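Hi W.,

Here's what went into the run:
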Amino acid sequence: MDKLKRREFLATAAAAASLPCLIPSGVLAVEGREGANGKLTIGHMGIGGMGSYHLHDIKGRADRGEVNLAAICDADDRHLENASKIAGPKADVYRDYRYLLERKDIDAVIMATPDHWHGVGMVHAAESGKHVYVEKPACCTIEEGRAMIAAARKNKVSVQVGSQGRSTGDACAAASYLRNGMIGKVSKVTCWHYGNPVGGTDPDSPPPPELDWDLWLGPMRWRPYNRCYCPGNFRWFLESGGGQIRDRGAHVMSCALYLMNADHQPPATIEAKGTAPTRGLWDCPVDMEVVYTFKDPDWTLVWSQPGNPPPKGDAGHNQYGAVYHGDKETLTLYGGDGGTWTEKKARQFKVPAGGVEVYRSPGHKEDWFQGIKTGKKTIMNIEAGVAVADLTIMGNLSCILGRKLSWDAARGRFLGDEQANRMISRPQRHPYHL
Amino acid sequence: MHSNLWKEASLAAAAGVLASVARAGDAVAVDELIAKIKSQDEKVRTQGWLGAGQVGAAAVKPLAETMTDANREVALAAKRALAQIVHDAGRPGADEQKKAVIAQLLLLLGDDRPAAVRREVLWLISEIGGDESVDAVAALLTNAEFREDARCVLQRIPGDMSLAALRAGLESLPADFRPAMAESLRTRGVPVSGYPDQKLVPTKATGVKPVGR
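Here's what came out:
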């Protein structure tokens, strides 16, 4: 387990001074920070749901003396009260994340807010000099993604997006198997996932007193509180969570881009169709199919709800995943998130002499810590996180508009579609903006 | 089962909206659409809103009126139908249809319309509106209930007219709203001084204390 000692930071920084290697400003700034105790000091933004998982994880690391756990924040006081019991008395509590970002002793933040906060929150954290672990999906609009990449680069912070499937051994084995040509030339990847729920039929109501509804909404346009939004159900609104494609798609298609070594290959066309929900506020398509084409090299990626799940095989489940179709054979990667399995043939594959070696992540957070410490790119760096989020955003957009979209990657615009181009961004409420 | 495919909305004619498609814009088509939207059968409502794009501008006002229906599912279907019309009108090559839809939407921004309708219409205008929309949207900058939405919409509408409206707003609107206007101008690439960015300024305290401290 990495212990991020101050001596190591400084030694790395000193060594890096003569190298063309990126050293995050936050690392250098650790020196002299009160309370750092030579370890990375972490704050948590959003501590319900996945945030609670991360908090437990970091609390364990803090108890083992590996990191400092300095603060937690959430727009919901109930979450704060519960999370404070986990975090312990040393961790300060905030409703407003900007108090946390003001603190010079905090080196890094873990963001597990609702999705519509990921872009703005990560940008603000980076601009405050914090390294960021941001949950997936990285962003809700293409513009947010661009701002996240720019903020990470400008402020030289290490960012890990929470598509942790890439850090699993089976994903690494599958990537190694594919990239060494074992299934031949891959022309198609078909993802499957069960559909979105229908619901959201409660009436609007006053927000509960413990919830700061204005802060929860953040960059989204104002609307009355409705319990169908939160906690958790933001997932089923196109504007916020974007449904399964943006949620689990950020796992399954993250693995697809990883296995295909295509993080830097944007799609050429996007064509979606979906089955509309027949009632309720939740507006994500119940069933859905999105076909993405890529050029040079040419291949096709299909996101399908529910698609055609293969038999479970020796995997833990077959609720979602992807089949990789090569001209020799196929390979299946089940899951794609924290639970990821591949076929035995890939797990047992040994890279031959002179073959393609695939980086094996030591663990998703450990990989992030290494990124902070050394300046190396994380396995799910912000560029990769935005690339997969953009796929999901474009898929939803094609479905909403009911037409095929063509993407001009060089210009960062849709070809000949002004309305789609306007929807690359979405104006944000003041002051919760990029 | 949900059998209505967004992608196939244009084919919905074959599944029952055919008459409406053939008489797009006429009163019969609008009446048929509104009847579907008001149906007690959720599948019929969904079929209705998915096919609304084919009916077009003529349905905008009746749909806006249906958005306040006492049955929330009916109101929701009307709202989605309106969005469907805007998405259809925004497709490449549909300039005349877009103009007609925008003209109808602009008529819905007046004081005689419910706030929820006006807010929804504002954001739909942000997707397809141009210079012709700027004055009507800018007029709402002086309305405390809508000024933030109007600012966002002006920020999104391209062109010199929307930019001029944002500049004028910065000069004339109450002091508490000027930082927001300044931010819109910055987003549009216009340097603004005198109104520091407030995005990193914390304002919201909690009463929760750390457990055990």
